[in-house]
Design brief:
By secondary structure, this protein is of the alpha+beta class. The chain folds into three domains: 109 residues, 2-Layer Sandwich (Translation, Eukaryotic Peptide Chain Release Factor Subunit 1, Chain A), CATH 3.30.960; 139 residues, eRF1 domain 2 (Nucleotidyltransferase, domain 5, 2-Layer Sandwich); 105 residues, Ribosomal protein L30/S12 (60s Ribosomal Protein L30, Chain: A), CATH 3.30.1330.30. Helix content is 39%, strand content 22%. It is globular.
Length: 381
């Protein structure tokens, strides 16, 4: 996953960093009170761990702003220096609530649960135009919001008569032309959104004839890198249910996510096998991070891990032992959870991160890295 610019910016602040990740669900009559109690308990734990009051107050403001988010969800708050740095909602609550104060944000549990952002566009078409839903990468439930209404430039005629004499055939050709023109207009608007969002997938639903025309127009409008799919579910009529289209949109995004994941893992496995563009194991990955060589860090999620690293002021100053850093001339290194140190280095080096739910057989220590350049350039043919 590409860390967002907002997440990367957090690491440019001075610590200590205060991280809270908890169940923010507001799906019952008493849920709001329960959220307040959970937060107050976490706040007390954070204060005992050394969090300063101005930062906790800033995080409290983030909790108050989240009240409008309905239903079951998790809530991440990250603060430092009296500021709220990150305020994020996840689709599901965390398995375990988190309260942490340290020299770097503790974002691993949040990132392991957070899905890769895949901007997408959903089109529900009929023969006069379309409803277009633009999703910057959040939950597909955004389809419940008001869509952009697109009406084709050529609105009349749009209905055939079913008669076969010459004048009616001419009329029906005009109808076909109207449908084509309207589909082209829809495709132009979709193309604008795809370019603005860098959208990865477009889903087309609605009237079968209009759907086919829009698919054909999109094939000419969009680059081949955009995944264009269709669903027979849903329609544009007033009151039509969006549930089936929402599910299809979610599936389309999942396909892109899993395809990206498979490609990265295959690239890593090949690089490790050839000993050129891939490394695995903690020692080799740390060395690659220190040299800014990592393109994508692949890390198995292990909430029970107690492994720690030592870090310096610069995010790329990290090692498994204090002696390793002092030998490099790093003054006053401090200990930190290994996963937090790794993510800090990823953010600073503009690398990407892929978190897997379990270790793969070719990942020594459950960690690997796809490299930007070959570690042994002379051996590559």
């Amino acid at each position: 996953m590409s860390l967002t610019a907002e997440i990367r910016q957090c690491y440019k602040h001075e610590g200590p960093f205060v991280t809270a990740y908890f169940d923010g669900s507001r799906n019952t009559e008493t849920a709001s009170h329960a959220v307040e109690l959970r937060w107050q308990a976490l706040r007390e734990r954070l204060a005992e761990a050394g969090a300063d009051q101005p930062t906790l107050d800033a995080m409290q403001a983030g909790l108050d702003s989240e009240r409008s988010w309905p239903g079951r969800h998790g809530h991440l708050l990250l603060g430092a220096g009296g500021q709220l740095l990150l305020d994020e909602v996840t689709d599901e609550p965390p398995a375990t609530e988190l309260a942490d104060v340290g020299p770097a944000p503790h974002l691993m549990p949040f990132l392991a649960q957070r899905s890769e952002t895949v901007p997408s566009v959903v089109v529900i078409a009929d023969r006069t135009g379309a409803n277009i839903y633009v999703n910057a990468g959040d939950s597909a439930a955004r389809l419940t919001l008001n869509p952009e209404q697109v009406s084709g430039a050529d609105q009349h005629p749009v209905h055939k008569t079913g008669r076969n004499d010459w004048s009616e055939s001419h009329f029906q050709r005009r109808v076909e032309n109207s449908w084509n023109e309207n589909a082209t207009d829809v495709a132009h608007v979709v193309g604008k959104h795809v370019r603005e969002l860098a959208a990865r997938t477009v889903l087309v639903a609605g009237d079968v004839r209009a759907r086919n025309l829009v698919l054909h127009a999109l094939a000419e409008e969009l680059p081949p890198t955009v995944d264009i799919t269709e669903t027979t579910a849903g329609g544009r009529a007033e009151g039509a249910s969006l549930a089936a289209v929402t599910e299809a949109a979610h599936d389309a995004v999942l396909r892109v996510r899993w395809r990206d994941r498979r490609e990265i893992l295959a690239k890593l496995q090949q690089g490790v096998a050839r000993a050129d563009f891939g490394v695995t194991g903690i020692d080799e990955v740390l060395q690659a991070l220190r040299s800014g060589q990592v393109e994508t860090l692949v890390l198995s999620d292990d909430p029970r891990s107690t492994l720690r690293a030592w870090i310096g002021h610069d995010p790329l100053q990290l090692a498994l032992t204090e002696d390793e850093l002092t030998a490099l001339g790093i003054q006053q290194p401090v200990p930190l959870r290994l996963d937090a140190a790794l993510i800090r280095a990823v953010a600073a080096s503009n690398a990407d991160l892929l978190i897997t739910p379990n270790a793969h057989s070719y990942l020594t220590d459950g960690i690997g890295a796809v490299l930007r350049y070959a570690r042994n350039p002379g051996t590559v043919s």
